[in-house]
Each structure stands twice: as structure tokens, then as C-alpha cells.
Amino acid sequence: MCPFHTVGLTWSTFKTREVNQPVTVFCHLKVYLGVSDTTLLPTGIEVDSFPHPGFENKPGNDIMLLKLKTPATLNKTVTIIDLPNPWNDKMLKDCLVMGWGSMIYKHYSPSTVLRELNVTLNNLTHCFEPDVICNKDPSGPSQGDSGGPLVCKDIAMGIVSFNLEKTEGYITGYTRVSQHLLWINKIMKKNNI
What we know:
By secondary structure, the chain is mainly beta. It folds into two domains: about 5-80 and about 180-190, Trypsin-like serine proteases (Thrombin, subunit H), CATH 2.40.10; about 95-175, Thrombin, subunit H (Beta Barrel). Helices cover about 5% and strands about 30% of the residues. The chain contains one helix and eleven strands, in the order βββββββββββα. It has one helix spanning about 180-190, and strands at about 5, 10-15, 30, 45-50, 65-70, 95-100, 115-120, 130-135, 150, 155-165, 170-175. It has a six-stranded antiparallel sheet with strand order 7-6-9-10-11-8, with no helix packed on it. Strands 1-2-5-4-3 form a five-stranded antiparallel sheet, with helices on one face. A hairpin with a 2-residue loop joins strand 9 and strand 10 (about 155-165). The protein is globular and about 45 Å long. The two termini are about 25 Å apart. Keywords: Disulfide bond. GO terms for molecular function: serine-type endopeptidase activity. This is Granzyme G. Pfam families: Trypsin. One of its GO terms (biological process) is proteolysis.
């Protein structure tokens, strides 16, 4: 179960892999909208998937679009989120990250309840690629949170990609959604949205 961004009534963004793992070819995906507890799953919506063509098992291109085969019904738990503009993604600092990851350090046991964490993005002088947002924080996403959304002021800024444990603390990498806007718009236009 992965949280994701809903960017339209029939579109979502999603992370395609765990770091250092081969990409999985999905034959039959379903999306569960508005779910915050996996013990109470409603009927899922089938989707068509569009993985990023530049995926090379590296951070930054690990993104996929999902087209819902049935339009979403909007309500208090299912809403549409804005995509970023290329010029506003560097000025946002106070964000929310969500995921189903483990609450126990270095022990993967997925949560059955969707977890949320407020994070403040700090500028790091070094990041891996321009399409990766890096953040150094004593707390942040953990194992199993990959694919979770990074939301800043109701804007889909990033997707949890990886965590690195360094001597100076944790670094979390997020796929930078604004770097993929041309591709996102091209796929949505090509598929009549």
C-alpha cells in the first residue's frame, strides 16, 4: 500500500521502486482512495500505469503516473492536489510527508495506519541530481515510506525516494515533481485528460 498524489479526477503520481531494487512490472494495479487504515480497505479502482521513460534505477526518475479507469469521487478524504510550478518549488519549506512505513528503527514492519509527519525542508549544499530534493532532518520518512507524498502548502512537491544514514544524521531524498512537469503534461494530454 503506497500513498500517492491525486492530481486530477483520473490521474495520480506514484513512485515506481525502492532504492537499489529492480523496477517491478505491474500487471494489475488497484488504487484505494481516501484510505488511512489498511484493515478497512474499500473496493479498489483499476488503473493504467505510465512509468517514467528515463527510469534508470536512480533517484529522480522513479516516478509513475496512474490513470484511474473510473473517475474519483471527491469528498473530505479524497481531494485534488496542485502540481508545482518550476519557480515555486524552491521557496516552500514547511511540508507534510505521509507513508505506511515502519515506526521501529531498522526493523521493517509496515504500519496499518497512514502516518503523517511535518518536515521543514533545509537547503543542502549537495544533492544527487537536480530532480531530487534532499533534506537533512533528525526525523523523517522511514523504511516502507517510499512512494509517499511530500506536500507543501497543498502542492505536490515530491515523492519519497530514499533515506541515507550519515554520520551527521539522516538525509531523505524526494523525487522533485516540478522536474517532470513536461512529461506529466505530455502523458496526460496523450491520454485525453
